[in-house]
Design a protein that fits this description.
heterodimer, A: 306 residues, f41 fragment of flagellin, N-terminal domain, two-stranded antiparallel sheet, two-stranded antiparallel ribbon, 8 helices, B: alpha+beta, 4-stranded antiparallel beta sheet, 9 helices, 16% strand, rod-shaped
Chain lengths: 306, 446
C-alpha cells in the first residue's frame, strides 16, 4: 500500500527550519544595531566590503597627509618669520649705511655704526641657521646639518643642498618644504655671485677702518644691501604663497575627510531605523510562527478521540 | 457449523490484533526518521473440498499476510542526491568562511595600510627619530599580521583535514555495516518484521554514505544494495557482503586525495567533495598570501638597496623570509631606513627613495591592492557559496519532506486505524460470543 500521508516529522522539520531562519535574521539585525556596522564579514556584501577597505586606506592616508600639511604649515611659518626678521634687519642696515655715507660721523660715530652692524651680522648668521620646532634647520635644503658655516676669517658659506624637497599633502600634490638658504641669502651682484653675509661683512670691515674713504665704501655697499633686500623679499613672497597653498590644501583635506566619512557611513553603517523596523517585523513573525506551531502541532486525531 | 464460526472469529481476532500491534509500532516510531511505516496485508481464507462432483466451500475467515514496508526508491534517491549536493556546498561554504574570517580579522590589509601611512608620515621629516621608529614598527606589525594570517589559515586548513579524516572513519563504518546488512538480507524471509528492520537499516546506511560521498546504489531483487562512489573514476565501495576501505591522504600544500581499496579517485559530490574543494581553494589562498608577503618583502628590500640610510651607508634589507609564515623584520635600527637616494650624504633629508617605496607599495601591482583583490575574490566566492548552499538546502529539505510523506508515519491515519481496528476486534469478539450462544442453544435443546 502506498498512500500519501502528512508525516508529523516533515511538519516539525519544516517549522523548526523556518523558526531557525527567523531567529538568525533577528540575531543579524541585533548585531547590526549593536555594532553599528552593516557588514561583519566580507562575504555578506563583497562589493561594499571592498569599498570600505579602500575608504579605510584613503582615510588612514588622509589623516597622515593632514598631519603632514599641519607641520609643513608650521615649518613654512617659522621660515617666514625668520625671513621677515631678516628684511627688518637689512632695512636697519640700509639706514645705517645711508647715515654712514652721508653724515660726517667722525671716527667714533663710524665705530658705533660698525659695532651695531657687527651685532646685526651676528643676528643675520643665527637667523640663517634658525631651526624648526623639532630642531631641523630651516634653510639647509635637504641637509640636516647647519645651513651656513663660518670659517676663522669670518667668511660664511652655504653648507646645505640647492633644493629643499617636497612633502606630499594630498594625492598627487607635494609642496616644497621650505627655501634653501642659497635662494634666500645668496644673489648676483653686478654679474658675480655674492651673499648677504659678504655685503654686510664688507661694510663692517670698511667702517672699522679697512677702507680709505669709509663714506664712499658705505655708499658703494648700498647697492649690495638693496640686492639682499630684494632676495629676502622674494623669499618672503614665495614662503607666503606656499603657506596660502598649504591652507587651501588643509581646507580641501577637511572636505575630503567629511566626504570619506559620509561614504563609509553610506556603505558600511547600519541604517538604525530600518534595522529596528526589520527586527520588529522578524520578532512579530517569530512570535506568530511559534504560537501557530504550538496550535498546529496539537492538532492530531488523538486529541479529538477520547 | 458453530466451530467454523469460532475459527472465523478467532482468525479475525488474530488479524486485527496483529494489525493493532503494527499500528502501535508505527505510532511508537512516529518520530524515528529511519523508520518506514508498516502495514499488514490480509487475505481471505476459504477452504474448498470436493467429493466427486460435489464441491463444498468452508469459510475459514481471514489470513494475516505479510508485513509491508512503505518504500519509494525514486523519492529516496532524490533525497540522497539532494543531500549529497547540499553537503558538498555547505561543507565548502563553512570551510571557506573560516578562511575568510582568518584573512580578514588577521589584519593583513590594515597592516599594509598602516605601514604605508607611517612611511608617508616619515616623508614629512625623514630625520626625526620618532617618525623613523614608528615606520619601522609599522613594518614589524605588518609582518606580524602576515604571520597571523598564515597561522589562522593553517588552522582553518587543519580543522578541515581533521574533519575529513574523522568522517573517513564514519564512511568505513557505514560501508562495513551495509555489507553486513547485505549478508543478513540474503537470509531474511520476505514479509517479516526482521526484514523490514534490515531494510530500514540499509536505507539509513545509504543516507549516511550519501552525506559524505555522492553514491550510485544498485538494488538487487533480494533487497541488498551495491554502492558505487560517484567520481572520477567511479569506484565500487560495497559489493554484496564485502566493503572496500576508504582512505584520505594530504599533500604538503594541504590538498586531499582519496583512495578506495587502494585505487585513487576524486569524489564527485557529498561533504568530502566539498572538503576537497575547500582544501584546494585554501592551497591557492596560501599561495596568494605568500605571494603578497614576498611582494611586500621584495618591494621594501629593493627600495632599501637603492637608497642610503641616515648614516649615508647603503640601505640594508628591511625584511627577510620566503612567504607569509616566515616574513620577519631584520633591519636592526630605524636609522637604517633608506629614505634618501643612494649617494646622499649622512643626515640627508632627501626623501626621493622613500617616495619611490611608498609609490611601489601603493601601486596597482603592489601588495595593498593585491590584498584587496584577494579579499574581494574570496568574499565573493564565499557569498556565492552561501547563496548556493541556501538554495540546495531548500531542495534537500523538500526532498526530505517528500520522503517523509511517502514513508513516514502519519499520526492521524494511525489514530483512525486504531479506532477502526479496535472496532474490528470488538466485532470479532462478538462473533465468538454469538457462536458460543448458538452452541449453548443447541446444547440446551431438550
Amino acid at each position: 500500500m502506498s498512500s500519501i500521508t502528512n508525516s508529523p516529522g516533515s511538519f516539525f522539520n519544516r517549522s523548526l527550519r523556518q523558526m531557525a531562519d527567523l531567529r538568525a535574521g533577528i540575531e543579524r539585525s541585533r548585531t547590526q544595531i549593536a555594532t553599528g556596522s552593516r557588514i561583519d564579514r566580507g562575504s555578506q556584501d563583497p562589493a561594499a566590503a571592498a569599498q570600505l577597505r579602500s575608504v579605510a586606506r584613503r582615510e588612514a592616508l588622509a589623516q597622515v597627509e593632514g598631519d603632514n600639511a599641519a607641520r609643513l604649515g608650521q615649518d613654512l611659518g617659522a621660515a617666514a618669520t625668520e625671513v621677515e626678521a631678516v628684511i627688518a634687519l637689512f632695512q636697519r642696515v640700509r639706514e645705517l649705511a645711508v647715515a654712514a655715507a652721508n653724515t660726517p660721523l667722525g671716527e667714533n660715530g663710524r665705530r658705533a655704526v660698525a659695532f651695531e652692524l657687527e651685532q646685526l651680522r651676528e643676528e643675520l648668521f643665527s637667523r640663517a641657521n634658525a631651526t624648526s620646532l623639532t630642531g631641523e634647520p630651516l634653510f639647509a635644503g635637504q641637509s640636516s646639518g647647519s645651513a651656513f658655516t663660518r670659517d676663522a676669517a669670518g667668511n660664511v658659506t652655504y653648507a646645505g643642498t640647492p633644493t629643499s624637497g617636497a612633502v606630499p599633502v594630498a594625492p598627487g600634490t607635494a609642496i616644497e618644504r621650505g627655501l634653501p638658504g642659497s635662494e634666500v641669502f645668496e644673489f648676483q651682484l653686478n654679474g658675480s655671485p655674492s651673499s648677504a653675509f659678504a655685503v654686510l661683512g664688507g661694510l663692517v670691515a670698511a667702517l672699522q677702518g679697512g677702507a680709505g674713504d669709509p663714506a664712499a665704501a658705505a655708499n658703494a655697499a648700498i647697492e649690495g644691501i638693496d640686492a639682499a633686500l630684494d632676495a629676502t623679499a622674494r623669499a618672503a613672497t614665495i614662503l607666503g604663497t606656499r603657506m596660502a597653498w598649504v591652507e587651501q590644501v588643509e581646507t580641501q583635506q577637511a572636505d575630503r575627510r567629511v566626504a570619506l566619512a559620509e561614504r563609509r557611513s553610506r556603505v558600511g553603517d547600519t541604517d538604525i531605523a530600518e534595522a529596528i523596523a526589520r527586527l520588529q517585523q522578524s520578532l512579530t513573525a517569530l512570535e506568530a510562527s511559534q504560537s501557530a506551531f504550538a496550535r498546529v502541532s496539537s492538532l492530531t486525531l488523538f486529541d479529538a478521540l477520547r | 457449523m458453530p466451530t467454523a464460526i469460532f475459527t472465523i472469529g478467532r482468525s479475525g481476532l488474530t488479524a486485527s490484533r496483529r494489525s493493532l500491534e503494527l499500528t502501535a509500532q508505527n505510532i511508537a516510531n512516529a518520530e524515528n526518521v529511519d523508520y518506514s511505516r508498516r502495514t499488514l496485508t490480509q487475505g481471505e481464507l476459504v477452504m474448498t473440498g470436493s467429493i466427486g462432483t460435489n464441491a463444498a466451500d468452508s469459510l475459514g475467515g481471514v489470513r494475516p499476510g505479510v508485513i509491508e514496508r512503505a518504500e519509494s526508491a525514486l523519492v529516496q534517491r532524490q533525497a540522497r542526491d539532494a543531500n549529497s549536493a547540499r553537503a558538498a556546498a555547505e561543507t565548502e561554504f563553512f570551510a571557506l568562511r573560516e578562511a575568510e574570517s582568518a584573512l580578514e580579522t588577521s589584519g593583513v590589509f590594515t597592516g599594509l595600510v598602516e605601514y604605508e601611512a607611517a612611511l608617508t608620515r616619515l616623508q614629512n621629516n625623514p630625520t626625526e627619530p620618532a617618525l623613523r621608529l614608528s615606520a619601522l614598527e609599522a613594518g614589524r606589525k605588518m609582518a606580524g599580521n602576515f604571520r597571523i594570517a598564515n597561522g589562522t589559515l593553517a588552522n582553518a586548513r587543519s580543522l578541515v583535514q581533521a574533519e575529513a579524516s574523522a568522517e573517513t572513519l564514519t564512511v568505513n563504518e557505514l560501508a562495513n555495516e551495509l555489507a553486513k546488512i547485505n549478508a543478513d538480507l540474503v537470509g531474511a524471509r520476505e514479509g517479516t518484521a526482521g526484514r523490514a528492520a534490515l531494510l530500514d537499516a540499509r536505507d539509513k546506511a545509504l543516507r549516511g554514505l550519501a552525506e559524505e560521498f555522492a553514491i550510485q546504489p544498485t538494488f538487487n531483487p533480494d533487497g541488498t544494495a551495491n554502492v558505487t562512489l560517484a567520481g572520477t573514476p567511479p569506484v565500487a565501495l560495497v559489493t554484496g557482503a564485502s566493503a572496500q576501505a576508504v582512505a584520505v591522504t594530504f599533500a604538503a600544500d594541504g590538498t586531499a586525495s582519496f583512495t578506495v581499496g587502494g585505487s585513487a579517485f576524486a569524489p564527485g559530490g557529498g561533504a568530502m567533495a566539498g572538503r576537497a574543494a575547500a582544501l584546494a581553494e585554501m592551497a591557492s589562498l596560501q599561495g596568494a598570501l605568500d605571494g603578497l608577503a614576498v611582494s611586500a618583502i621584495t618591494i621594501s628590500n629593493t627600495a632599501q638597496a637603492a637608497g642610503a640610510g641616515l648614516d649615508g651607508n647603503p640601505g640594508q634589507p628591511l625584511f627577510a623570509g620566503t612567504g607569509a609564515g616566515s616574513i620577519t623584520m631584520v633591519l636592526a635600527s630605524a636609522d637604517g631606513l633608506a629614505t634618501a637616494p643612494a649617494g646622499a650624504p649622512a643626515g640627508s633629508r632627501d626623501t626621493a627613495n622613500l617616495a619611490a617605496l611608498i609609490a611601489a607599495l601603493g601601486a596597482p601591482t603592489g601588495p595593498t591592492t593585491g590584498t584587496d583583490t584577494l579579499l574581494l575574490g574570496l568574499s565573493s566566492r564565499v557569498a556565492a557559496l552561501e547563496t548556493r548552499t541556501r538554495g540546495l538546502e531548500v531542495v534537500a529539505a523538500s526532498a526530505e519532506a517528500e520522503v517523509l510523506r511517502e514513508t513516514g508515519v502519519d499520526l492521524d491515519t494511525e489514530a483512525a486505524n486504531l479506532v477502526r481496528l479496535q472496532q474490528a476486534f470488538e466485532a470479532n469478539s462478538r462473533v465468538i460470543q454469538v457462536a458460543a450462544e448458538l452452541f449453548d442453544t443447541i446444547l440446551g435443546l431438550r
